[in-house]
Amino acid sequence: MEYSWKELIAVDRYIVHANGVLSELDRKVLTLLYQPLIGAQAYSLYMTLWSELEQARLWSEETTHHSLMAIMQCSLPTIYAERLKLEGIGLLNTYMKRTNENDERVFIYELCLPLTPEQFFTDGVLNVFLYDRVGKTKFQKLKKFFSDRAIDRTSFIPVTRSFHDVFSSIQPEKMIHKLSDEAKQEVMLQDGQQYIGKEQAMYTMRDDIFDFDTFYAGLSHHLVPRRAITEKVKDAIKKLAFLYGIGPLDMQKIVMSVIDPAEQIDIEALRKAAQEWYQFERGEALPRLYDRVQPLEERTIAHVEPKNEEEYLMKQLETVSPRQLLMDFSGGVEPALADLQLIEEIMFKQKLPPGVMNVLIYYVMLRTDMKLPKKYVEKIASSWARKKVRTVKQAMELAKKEAREYETFIKEKEKKGSKKPIRTELLPDWLQTDYSQFERKQVKSEEELEQKRRELEERLKKPKS
């Protein structure tokens, strides 16, 4: 989602509120488990907002976003983008109201406590994302760090006293219903107040990320009664469908395989069945980065009907995974393992979103006769990562701009022959690359390049028709 001045301006005021008292364990969970998922800047924003709370208090003083910009030393669009990450992962709730004075806006940033280590590592989505980000070795170290030896109770007998063994009953005349109205008011909490407590962060996924209508339509009421699909089960279905790329028809089979004789669905059994389905279908232990699609918050035309060929292509690149894009180019043939490994490595190291990776693939294959030269792809990826390209639109505009600069550079070089060209600006490394080292078929003219572009677009349209 792109930043707009309508969303946030520097003079807008905000107050920080916490839905519980943050502890040292919460800090470690945020640092070691959440930070690899949200990045250093989003983590810094959360910690900065946390620091504005006094110790063991739930509310901060009111201040402006200009102050936040000065503390974090970053722009307002950056703060807004990182705020969305915190909201998406369930660490922040944002509320806004307009005051009567000059129609000014006041925001409440409600900090949510992170999940406990047990909740995080058994979540089914966050733990898999963490595994992808940090790798197997680091993931196992983190699990070990947040766990400890359990008590072996087998050789012990419980001797703990119960409440009634220690405390005597309250005398009837002192019971609260015997108190006067004035005394009852002293016991009860006043209106507008709340007790300091704890409530873990819970991220949400909208229903529209999964086609529940198709799922319910093909689900037998005799085998799986509608009452078995509780809110918890429904939430698990959305997460598993998002994580493993499971469609409604396959999800029907998975659900029917785990429902028990009491017509109930165990969430853990559902997760295991989804993992087994994924391993059987893809032959992999966990979903890889090249199977992800562009996150909704970083899509530019998610809810817009394409008006021209460029917007149609943009929407396709936003809604398919890099693996699926390669399959579309090859008419449904599974991509080469080397290509998938290259994409996986680049997405992990350069932190490129799936949609941006799709633009990179599309552009490189257009320029190199349907090949993915490793060094060439890595140079472009590194360049785009430094420029913080996050959306398909940004990537497409940058690719077109740099392609024009490269063509100009080549023409000037040809005019001057063997003489070293005089350049007025420093071009990116990948624009200076000699394409012939990749043994590509040289593109001789703009007409031939345009023809290749049309061929790629036709290949993309075929699987969709």
UniProtKB/TrEMBL annotation:
Highest taxon listed in the record's lineage: Bacteria
Entry-linked InterPro entries: DnaB/C_C, WHD_DnaB
Keyword check for Coiled coil: yes
Positions of the Replicative helicase loading/DNA remodeling protein DnaB N-terminal winged helix domain: 12-184
Entry keyword annotation includes Coiled coil: yes
Family listed: Belongs to the DnaB/DnaD family.
Protein known as: Replication initiation and membrane attachment protein
Domain called DnaB/C C-terminal: residue spans: 340-397
Coiled coil: 396-462
Keywords of the record: Coiled coil
Lineage, opening ranks: Bacteria, Bacillati, Bacillota, Bacilli, Bacillales
